[in-house]
Amino acid sequence: MKADIGIIGGSGLYKFFDKGKWVNIKTKYGKPSDQIFLFEYLGKKIAFLPRHGRKHNLPPHKINYQANIDVFKQLGVKLIISPAAVGSLQTNIKRGDFVFCNDFIDRTKKRKDTFFNGPKTVHISSTDCYCDQLRKIGKKVCEKNKIKVHDKGIVVVIEGPRFSSKAESKWFTKSGWHIINMTQYPENVLAREAEICYLNISLVTDYDVGVQGIKPVSLEEVIKVFGKNIENVKKVIIDIIKEIPKDYSCNKCHNALKGAIIS
Question: Domain holding 183: CATH number?
Fold first, then answer.
C-alpha cells in the first residue's frame, strides 16, 4: 500500500470521498485514531485519517499523534493536509475565515512529541514546521474560491479538553497570537521529524473568551460554524490536490533531518 498525499480530518470531517477502502495499519507506537481510508483522485493516491476517530471518541489529549503520523510515513506520503477547527484571538480574524499557520506556541503538557527517544539523538528545527510551498498553494485556492484567507498566523496549542480561562485567553490575545487550537501540536513537529510537508487549514469557528466584547466560546457554536463551512473545507482540499504536481517535491521539508542527527 502506498499513498502520495495524506489528509487528517478534524472535527466534523470524518470521511472523504465514497469510493475507496478502509484499511488497518499497525505501528510500533500503537493504534492510530482509526482505520485509514485509501482512494485515488486525478491519478494521485490519497490516505485519509479522521483525527478524532469516525465516532469522535478521542479528545485532543488522548490522540495518538505518533501513530497517526507514522502511518503516513509507512505509506510513503510526501505531504499532509490537516484541517482543524480553531478559535480566533484577534477581532480581524472572523468566524468562517481560513488561516494557514506559519508558526506555533506549544502550551500542551503531557503529549509524546518526538520519534527520537535515544539512542539516536535528533534536534530538528521547528522554524519551518508549516510548509511554505503548500501555504502558497492554499492561499491561491482560497482566493480562487472567494474564501477570506489569512496566509500567515501564529497558533497557540493548549492541552484541552477544556477551553481557556478568561485570563489565559486575554494573555494569548495580548501576546499577539492569532488563533487557538488543541490538536496542531505535536502533529506539526512529528510531521517535520518524519520529513513530510505539513499544511494546516485552520477554520475559524468562534472567538476565544478573552477577545474583548465577545461572548464565551461554546462547543455548540464551534460545531455549528464548522458544519456550515465543511463543504468549503472539502472544496479547498480538493482544489489543493488538483494544484499539487504528481512529481511534487520539497527540498526543505523532505530533508528536515539533514544536520539534525548527532552521530
Answer: 3.40.50.1580
